[in-house]
Specification:
Blueprint lengths: L2 H13 L5 H10 L11 H11 L3 H9 L4 H6 L1 H13 L10 H11 L3 E5 L5 H10 L5 E5 L24 E4 L3 H11 L3 E6 L5 H12 L2 E9 L7 H8 L5 E5 L2 E7 L1
Parallel strand pairs: 1-2, 1-4, 2-3, 4-5
Antiparallel strand pairs: 5-7, 6-7
Helix pairs in contact: 4-7, 7-8
């Protein structure tokens, strides 16, 4: 598919979904007027992140006093089945990230309500749900449909059926999904951000969610090296954060 045909297909798909019209308008502005803002402060933050980053194992040990080594053994069959489902999926989406960081954040907080933005195959969702299942908790997820790829049906496809009873998936952009989620739950134990990568998109979501995190809650943001939104947010709020280097990218995490 050429870039032009992809854009046209996406645009037509938006037109068929009135609930996504607000996000269509924002995307047009973001990709024209505000195009450069997506990378605001990128060089500054990557330099900072590289100077302070630790491994996922060290971060989990430092923040939660837990060891991640048992995770892959304990859930070996589930992870293998998830990997098989990803390989069979005809749509290319984001793969697994720092699963242990998410799982042990939920274990550390004894999470009952977790919020995430960005689902794709559902790797991060599954990591949270494996912990939430123990306490009959709920994962609230916001994820935009994959309009250009006809990928709606595959979002979250690797999540085991037995875990889906603990999951509520909202299929809108964050600015539409989050108010709907907040109407159902006013506070959260863990927040995992992995959606709109732009500076403005991040800052909006960070500010909306931060006040709804319980004391002692865990805040996780993927791909913080895309721009300086995460670093600026932490500086503004006097937050001491840990930076995790994972597969060449940086993740920000702190305990509120």
């Amino acid at each position: 598919m050429t870039e032009i045909s992809r854009v046209l297909k996406t645009f037509v798909a938006y037109l068929k979904r009135p609930g996504l019209y607000p996000e269509l308008g924002r995307k047009i502005i973001k990709n024209t007027v505000n195009r450069k803002s997506a990378f605001k402060g990128k060089e500054k933050t990557n330099s900072w992140a590289a100077s302070v980053a630790v491994s996922q194992k060290e971060a989990v040990s430092r923040l939660f006093s837990m060891d991640i080594d048992d995770f892959r053994r304990q859930f070996a069959e589930i992870l293998q089945e998830a990997d098989r489902k990803e390989k069979e999926c005809p749509i290319k989406m984001g793969g697994p990230g720092a699963l242990e960081l998410i799982y042990y954040a939920c274990e550390f907080t004894k999470a009952e309500r977790v919020l995430e933005t960005g689902v794709a195959y559902g790797w991060s969702s599954m990591a949270a749900l494996l912990s939430l299942e123990k306490r009959n908790g709920t994962l609230y997820s916001s994820d935009m449909p994959y309009l250009a790829q006809d990928g709606d049906q595959f979002v979250g496809c690797i999540v085991p059926d037995k875990l889906k009873e603990y999951w509520k998936l909202f299929r809108f952009a964050d600015k539409e999904s989050l108010p709907k989620i907040f109407a159902e739950s006013s506070s959260f134990d863990v927040f995992h951000y992995d959606s709109d990568k732009s500076y403005n998109g991040r800052m909006w979501a960070y500010n909306e969610v931060y006040g709804r995190l319980k004391p002692g809650a865990v805040f996780i943001s993927d791909d913080i090296g895309d721009n300086s939104a995460y670093q600026d947010f932490c500086d503004k709020n006097n937050i001491k954060t840990t930076v995790v280097e994972y597969e060449g990218k940086y993740i920000g995490v702190f305990v509120k």
